[in-house]
Amino acid sequence: MRIPIIAGNWKMNKTVDEAVAFVNAIKGQLPPAEQLQTALAAPTLCLMPMKQAAANSPLKLMAENCYYKDAGAYTGETSPYALYQAGIHHVILGHSERRNYFHEDDVLINKKVAAALRNGLCPIVCCDDTMGRRIADDDKIHWVVARILADLKGLSPENIRKVTIAYEPNWAIGNGQSADPNQAAEGCYLIRQTISDMYGDAVANDVRILYGGSVTPDNVTAMMDEQDIDGVLVGADSLDARTFLEIVNH
């Protein structure tokens, strides 16, 4: 049975003090982890103080990115090995903002996914489509399928089960324009069918697939009610503790 997950992605926001205050404000109001997993992806600088504040709570902490090398002359990068040794066992990879602003391609993301898994991290791998592709193809999404094939290339079935995939339409991120539940479910369904084609139904049924893109307290229930949506990746509305709790406890 796939345990649903609600994850916040703070991006480059909050100071250490603000991050710790946020954790203290929510940690006593989260559902049990066996019922719903709650996670926050925060800037690397904030992760260790947040981990200390979140001790003995259901809250999981995630890195927002990592590199594909464990160590070396890679100034400014974050080592997947160092993350795991610090007790941070989840990482977001391939977010559309990394692809767009830092020109990360599927070859690089595939290397990062493999490195994360090699070091014991559980990656949330983000993939998107585009509004132009949706309009051109009427009501079908194809881009997301090609992206999954590239980002997960070469992984074993055992490792695929450790991966969570987040479907984030590029046009729905950061602008308040969410996909409707049917659109979101379509993308997640195609991802699951793609994994089934690659690894079989048993593996595909174990993989959690999230929707991300302008998730709010008003639309989270409809998203979570869809069969192929196992949770949500929340952006702007994860920055306010009260709003994030509304989403988590929908």
What does this structure look like?
By secondary structure, this protein is an alpha/beta fold. Helices cover 40% and strands 15% of the residues. It is built from 12 helices and 8 strands. The mean pLDDT is 92.
Mean pLDDT: 92
> What fraction of the residues are assigned to beta strands by DSSP?
5-15%
Strand order of the largest sheet: 1-2-3-4-5-6-7-8
Low-confidence stretches: none
Shape: globular
Total count of strands: 8
Our measurement of the CA-to-CA distance between the termini, rounded to an integer number of angstroms, reads 20 Å
The biggest beta sheet reads: 8 strands, parallel, barrel
Radius of gyration: 17 Å
Structural class: alpha/beta
Series of secondary-structure elements, N-terminal to C-terminal: EHEHEHEHHEHHHEHHEHEH
Share of residues in helices: 40-55%
Tally of separate helices: 12
Compact overview of the structure:
The chain has helices at about 15-25, 45-55, 80-85, 95-100, 105-120, 130-135, 145-150, 155-160, 180-200, 200-205, 220-225, 240-250; strands at about 5-10, 35-40, 60-65, 90-95, 120-125, 165, 210, 230-235. The protein is of the alpha/beta class and about 250 residues long.
